[in-house]
Amino acid sequence: MVPLPRIFFPFSVGVIAGLRAGEVDQLYPYVPVIAGIASILFVLGLRRRCGLRLTWLSGCCLAILLMCLGYHLVRQHDQYGRADHFRHHDLPGGYLLVQIREPVSERPNTFQAVTDVLFAGNDSVIKAAEGRLLLYFEKDSLAGRLRYGDRLVVPDNYSGVSPPQNPAVFNYKRYLARQNIFHTSYLRSGEWYATGENAGRFYMRMALMLRERALQTLENNHVSGREFAVISALLLGYREYLDEDLRREFAGAGAMHILCVSGLHVGIIYMVLGKIFSFMTRLPGGRILKALAIILCIWIYAAVTGFSPSVQRASVMFTFVSMGQSFQRQTNIYNTLAASAIVLVAANPAIIMHIGFQLSYLAVISIVTLQPWFEKLMNVRNRLLSKAWAILTVSLAAQLATGPLALHYFHQFPNYFLLTNLVVIPLATVVIYTAILSLVLSPVPFAGCFAGKILSLIVSALHHSVRFIEGLPYSTTTGVYISFSETLLVFVCLFFLFCYLLKARRNYFLFSMVTMVLIVGSFTLRNATRSAQLFFVVYHVSRSTAIDFVSADKTVYIACDEIMNNQRQKSFSVEANRIRSGIRHEIEQPLVLSADTTVRSSHLIRSGDFIWYNGISVLLLHDESDVSKHFSGMSSEKASTDLYAESYPVDYLLITGNAVPEVSNLLRAVKPCKVILDASNVPWLANRIEADFLEAGVDVWNTRKKGAYVRVLR
Known about the structure:
The protein is α+β, with helices and mostly antiparallel strands. It folds into 5 domains: about 5-75; about 85-200, CATH 2.40.50; about 205-480, no CATH class; about 485-530; about 535-710, no CATH class. Strands 3, 4, 5, 6, 7, 8, 9, 10 and 11 form a 9-stranded mixed sheet that branches. Strand 4 and strand 5 (about 110-120) form a beta hairpin.
């Protein structure tokens, strides 16, 4: 019997519905009514009527009750709608007393801290408040000394989190909202002060102290450079030292899960602890003692990692697994996994939408279900080859379950994941063993340093292996787009296909084929739509200009030098929309061209600053453009007698790079239907230009206020 998964499914549906409801929730007042009706019907369904038990009715009502419970939990965890939320305390000259709730993270130009608001007030009144506020501190020595639990007084000049400014990019606003963070604030030096009080939870402060000491011990044992960055992430979940190249190499090779302390790492430690405490099973009540010892050690390890969310998930999961194995009778692993998932979601409903939570449980469920079946396909007698075959089957089972979701979220797939896991899992296991040994031996003179040097060599071998695999031809398939509905269809298809392989029933195979036809049909329909698409986008890129003129799977990309030389910024702002739109071919052009330069493509003609795109005319206005130079600083009298006797009509006037001719003079030469101001213009200047054009009766699109401009022609 597996009742807990059947309980978790409707419960999770209610949680997801509550999270999807967002800030405005008109259904919640009716939830108690729905739950009451379901409770009455549930009781009636359990009673005998005409000799029959209405089990179907009681089952449906129980599912509704569980959905209402999940929905209710989400609303109870939501702080935004509460009367005491700090946004309701807008006091003149006000300030907020906040407490840092997580370790402070360092960014290139700032320090970032998530805080809980405790009080809101001013010089005359103080009120209790709640809610979370994301703070960014200007880098200085004081901000660098901030720690978890510190209490600060900050001004209440916060602002709401901005929605996504470019199409198809990661929705950071929704991500923060699921953590009850709806407002942010940037604080310059001197705008805040620390009260000197630290009121963080004792166990959390001790955990962070243990992690800092572990990091310091590794440094003292002569682990440094990239090896230190890798071992910090691999063993302790501290990823602040990872640079972009390391992340790219591990992600491209399909080994990024090695750098995220999660089920793999806790699982390795769980197996080691199982062998260490195996002698306890010979004692009276030894199974329970062994389980308690393993659970205690797992949570001590979680404390050393600073109770990172991924380690907490894995620790809860293996806590339930250990408890289940301590019973004399056989327990069902699916019940155990469902029980741990229910506990995690009940404690934090938003965790169900975290990518790590979804990937972790999908991987474990797939491994316990499919790996034994895969392993039986080949009888390997050699002990070493048997271990290698076990790693391959585990990797295959995990990848089959997590691959579709990873494609949906990350749009890439590591083609050599079997080779990667065959190399990195044994090396990662040895790294964990050696790192723990180095920490244990650190008080012994020379022993800790010797273990640290051995550790550096092993981590270096791991890094070079990953770099080699990532550098192989066709190591990664990138630019893959699969929608959420298609991802669900893929999972349904795989589910029925696995059921057919495990139970050999024809109906399962038929259902999988029908689902596959639906998937192929969806892909075909989308490709047909893409082949006829025609649109252009003016992206919102901070202090830069980026434009795509798209026809089918081709684009003419016009951008300033800053973003052309910054691949990371381009990937963050532009690539997501291209992946969703299926754009595979790019013709790159600089923003500034000489006036007599003409560029032609299949769907666009550009002559200097003028662009003709499928019947649409666009004029680029920048500091080097002829129109900008001509009218810069010109008086109205001179403009009235200028050679531009009649204004030239254009569909779009795109102003970039703080090009600021007098608007009244400019309109004598150009008559635009719409003006677009991108983020290469400084905010105050963009606002002034916008106001001038609106006063002249010209429609304006300011990307700083409205996000990227998209014009779809077909």
